[in-house]
Amino acid sequence: MGIMATSLHPTAMLTKLFIVAVLVLIIFNLFRALAALMNKDPAHSHRVVRALTVRVALSVGLFLALLAGSYFGLIPSHGLR
């Protein structure tokens, strides 16, 4: 058969979509902070801080969601001990 066809549980697919969506938001906010940082106007410094704060909050939230998903069995372990 060459390629193994796997059927994903709907919860597993939603979990993957959630993770990818949050990662896209994290990268978006990182570039948003970079764009505000490249602007030489000091009035835009609050935008840098806000974008980086949102990025850190999303990163921490994603980490906690991954821990919770692993704990509750939404993210199966693959034999790592």
Coarse morphology: elongated
Q: Proportion of β residues?
A: under 5%
Overall strand count:
0
Structural class label? mainly alpha
Average pLDDT confidence is 83
Uncertain parts = none
Question: What's the end-to-end separation, in Å?
Answer: 31 Å
The largest sheet, given as strand count, sense and whether it forms a barrel, is: none
What's the helix-strand series?
A: HH
Integer tally of domains: 1
**Radius of gyration (Å):** 18 Å
Classify the helix fraction into a percent range: 55-70%
Main attributes of the structure:
81 residues, mainly alpha, 2 helices
Explained architecture:
The chain has 2 helices and no strands. The chain has helices at residues 10-38, 45-71. Helix 1 runs antiparallel to helix 2. The relative contact order is 0.13.
What's the helix and strand layout?
Layout: H1 10-38, H2 45-71
Give a short summary of the structure.
The protein has helices spanning 10-38, 45-71.
